[in-house]
Design goal:
Length: 352
């Protein structure tokens, strides 16, 4: 009789951490993209101002989405059991995410193809809607990972796990709060980014909006973090991470009130970092699943690939990840300057 392994290997731990890092990078980088997308029509009062807002993320948004693709690919290769159970059981939420990503990408690519104001308005609305949908669904999804998604084994295969909850079971009060809080946090993060990247009237509007939405983020975040630690916490480490996230969020709000745009953006970045670390620490070792109905738990060991696969992946990551990071860092550096409506030409036919 073969005994099932219960303790993770070093490479299994390494790849769980790397997947967490990829998700954290995605949430931080795409977080301000989503916030900016939702704010195009809110802060831009004319075409020039809206083009300024779109241009702040124009060179960055598609590169930032690579983090999501890489996180999904790494999960598929390193933990196929985790990937298979999530993607086979959550078709509708994943469809909503794909729908949001598609209409958002189309909006950014096609809004400048026609100078007609109605054309651009439609695509601005699509960008905002897509950003909102993806943010909301991801917030609900991560809240469900905190709760623990129930799984059972398939009738004909004891080694195949399936999600046993229905679509509507995902929308518990805590999960809905998670979705709303992530939307508000991304709005705050995006407003801070716009304040950092723009000048003149767009900067002033972004700063004023950040001050207002920051209060909502602090209030919602406080309820969410307290609820998470009381109902689903994992000891002193969880409380420390929640406290660090709260301090950074409050510090960000104080910084934007004082006109310190850079520090405000650092504050929301650190908030997302600590909250994401909290979530992935909570998901270890069961990967966000509730295994109470199965004899052999679907965890970090049972869901993992072979050691040979993980070894090959580690060598590939060691070669290519630094290249990708260097390229993205170079892109951010090249497009680091602030923008204003004065940088936008009067000829509306010129692509944004």
């Amino acid at each position: 009789m073969t005994l099932l392994a219960t303790e993770p290997t070093t490479l299994q731990v390494v790849w769980y951490v790397l997947i967490a890092v990829l998700w954290i990078g995605y949430l931080i980088l795409e977080g301000f993209d989503y916030g900016v997308g939702m704010l195009i029509r809110v802060l831009g009062k004319n075409e020039k101002e809206r083009r300024v807002i779109v241009n702040t993320v124009g060179p960055l948004w598609d590169g930032n989405e690579v983090w999501l693709l890489t996180a999904g690919g790494a999960t598929f290769a390193a933990f196929p059991g985790w990937y298979a159970t999530l993607f086979s059981g959550l078709y509708l939420p994943l469809f909503l995410i794909l729908f949001g990503l598609i209409i958002r990408g189309v909006a950014f690519e096609y809004r400048a193809k026609n100078p007609d104001s109605a054309w651009r308005t439609r695509f601005d609305v699509m960008a905002g809607l897509g950003s909102f949908i993806v943010s909301l669904v991801f917030g609900i999804g991560f809240a469900n990972f905190i709760i623990g998604m129930p799984v059972v084994t398939a009738e004909n295969s004891p080694h195949l796990y399936v999600f046993s909850g229905g679509f509507w079971s995902l929308f518990s009060p805590f999960a809905l709060l998670g979705g709303v809080v992530l939307v508000v946090l991304f709005l705050f993060h995006g407003a801070n980014f716009l304040a950092l990247k723009t000048r003149d009237v767009v900067h002033d509007r972004a700063e004023a909006f950040a001050v207002r939405i920051g209060l909502a983020a602090i209030a919602g975040g406080a309820v969410y973090l307290l609820w998470a630690n009381i109902a689903y916490g994992f000891g002193p480490v969880g409380w420390v991470l929640a406290a660090l996230a709260a301090v950074c969020l409050i510090a960000s709000w104080m910084a934007i009130r004082a006109g310190r745009d850079g520090w405000a953006f650092v504050g929301t970045t650190a908030t997302i970092l600590f909250v994401a670390i909290w979530i992935f620490a909570r998901m270890w070792p069961n990967l966000g699943f509730d295994n109470s109905a199965v004899a052999v738990p679907l965890d970090r060991v049972q869901a993992a690939s072979t050691e040979l696969t993980l070894t090959i992946m580690t060598w590939a990551a060691a070669i290519f990840v630094p290249i990708v990071l260097a390229y993205q860092g170079w892109t951010i550096w090249v497009f680091r300057k602030r923008l204003s409506a004065r940088n936008i030409p009067d000829d509306e036919t010129i692509a944004a």
